[in-house]
Design a protein that fits this description.
Structural class: alpha/beta
Distance between the termini: 74 Å
Strand content: 5-15%
Number of helices: 23
């Protein structure tokens, strides 16, 4: 391993091609990271007493030397910073009226002058990120910029440059000032040798608090040690479709949760979301590791489709989608490890739609009745992690129903008598499921359901402690006690779009 301090611009001027391997995440910086970089550059741009500003390390592996003396470098860490700086430099080149400056910035930092094909470009990203960055560098104004992040961040820098030019008398001086700030950026260029382990570098970076998610680490771990052909097969056949199915925003937000639920389903243990990577490594190796990489990822991908359909509203079956939406409204995330197995059985036609709906309704009823009856939910995770084992395939629903009915004490399934009593007398206004209950009541039996999203909860008998004379007269001499007893019960609550007009 070799480490050298240098300016970022000196690093980019090298005659090289920086490639992002398939196992790396796609470009993911948001506007807030671009704004921070912009502010840092503007802060140091015209300060004579500041000649450098450190922005982190770039970790790379040197692969080979091309006949045109353009070396191929695989970027292990630093993609986000490099790509963002290139977007800023592209915006600079597009914003200047000086052809010489535009050509200089492009030929120095964005392309390898004289090279042809992909070798022309200093940075090759993955998937649609690649074509989007190249379209911007080449000023293909009519090109379809498929990468949302690249398009948004490029437009952000163009707008910032426009604002900066508008605030200065000499617009070119404003751009040169920003360029001066970019030239002050310093990196540590770390080149790995053939005996260095890239995955250990990833884990070390993560342990020091850098922004590597559990999803990043899992993808790197699975793909990094595969031979080229299998790496392409696994990535394009399973991992990339999984990323697309989640969608860019939801992938970053929900993948860790999915993998935790997947591992819970497979192992019966509930890993901490922060330890998903470590738990996946154990599971992966137990299942055969890289020798079985394709079959393992095939299974992960298949269950990710089920998860996305249930948790992210992508189910095409209307009845199932309604049931999934109700479970989501109950915030019943703990049921997903169990339902992943049931969904697989539905997909493989072990059970039919009617049976699946019965199971979803039974699960929903269990969660909701326990909530109304004030029973604790802290044991739900462990319970749903293991309940699938109780199912007998020849009597699928009946065996599951029998398991629910056998539960006692704190785990019990409240019967109709207990549920009715609690539903009538309990303070429901302050429970998290009250809007769910009122919505279901509002739409029970309707062929044209009412959208209650904008409705608020109205107390029929007002909450006002100083009830009007009319209310006191209706309630009688014990009106205060009656108000206190029934104020937040179901019979006194309704949904309305006229809360402010109704007042008391």
């Amino acid at each position: 391993m070799q480490a050298t301090q240098k300016t970022l611009t000196a690093f980019l001027r090298e005659r090289q091609q920086l490639r992002i391997p398939l196992y790396q995440r796609t470009y993911s910086w948001e506007i807030k990271q671009c704004e921070k970089l912009w502010d840092d550059i503007m802060r140091i741009a015209d300060k004579e007493d500041v000649d450098s500003y450190f922005i982190g390390s770039i970790v790379r592996i040197k692969k080979n030397l091309d006949t045109r003396e353009i070396s191929e470098q695989i970027i292990i860490d630093g993609q986000q910073r490099i790509a963002t700086i290139l977007l800023l430099l592209s915006a600079l080149a597009e914003s200047t009226n000086q052809e010489e400056s535009a050509e200089e910035w492009k030929e120095e930092y964005l392309i390898n002058k004289g090279a042809e094909g992909e070798l022309r470009y200093k940075l090759i990203l993955t998937e649609e990120d690649k074509s989007s960055l190249i379209a911007i560098i080449e000023k293909r104004i009519h090109a379809n910029i498929a990468s949302t992040r690249i398009k948004e961040n490029f437009e952000f820098f163009k707008e910032k440059l426009f604002q900066e030019k508008s605030s200065q008398e000499n617009t070119e001086d404003a751009l040169q000032k920003i360029y001066a700030g970019i030239r002050k950026l310093i990196i540590v260029d770390i080149t790995l040798g053939k005996h260095d382990n890239p995955q250990l570098i990833f884990e070390s970076l993560n342990s020091k608090g850098l922004d590597l998610s559990q999803a990043d680490l899992i993808r790197n771990y699975v793909l990094i040690d595969l031979h080229q052909e299998l790496e392409n097969t696994v990535y394009s056949g399973y991992w990339r479709p999984m990323e697309k199915n989640f969608g860019q925003e939801n992938y970053n937000k929900f993948f860790n949760r999915f993998m935790r639920d997947y591992l819970t389903m497979k192992t019966g243990r509930i890993p901490n979301e922060k330890n998903v990577y470590e738990e996946f490594k154990k599971y992966y190796e137990q299942q055969g590791g890289k020798e079985k990489a394709e079959s393992i990822l095939d299974d992960v991908y298949k269950h990710s489709v089920y998860y996305v359909n249930m948790a992210l509203k992508k189910e095409k079956n209307v009845k199932l989608q309604e049931a999934f939406s109700d479970l989501k409204a109950l915030e019943a995330k703990v049921v997903y490890p169990f339902l992943l197995s049931v969904y697989r059985d539905y997909d493989e036609e072990i059970i039919n739609e009617e049976c699946f709906l019965d199971i979803l309704n039974l699960t929903q009823s269990y969660i909701f009745r326990r909530s109304v009856c004030g029973l604790p939910s802290n044991s739900h995770g462990k319970f749903f992690a293991g309940i699938y084992k109780s199912i007998k395939k020849e009597n699928y629903f009946e065996s599951l129903q029998a398991k629910f009915n056998s539960l006692r004490a704190q785990q019990r399934f409240p019967n109709n008598k207990e549920f009715k009593e609690e539903l009538g007398r309990r303070n429901l206004y302050h429970t998290r499921n009250i809007k769910f209950l009122l919505r279901r009541l509002e739409n029970f039996g309707r062929k044209e359901p009412v959208n209650t999203e904008r409705y608020t909860i109205e107390h029929i008998m007002p909450q006002n402690q100083n009830l009007s004379g009319d209310w006191q007269a209706m309630l009688g001499e014990n009106w205060k006690a009656i108000q206190e007893q029934y104020l937040h019960t179901l019979g006194n609550l309704t949904l309305t779009g006229y809360n402010s007009e109704l007042s008391d």
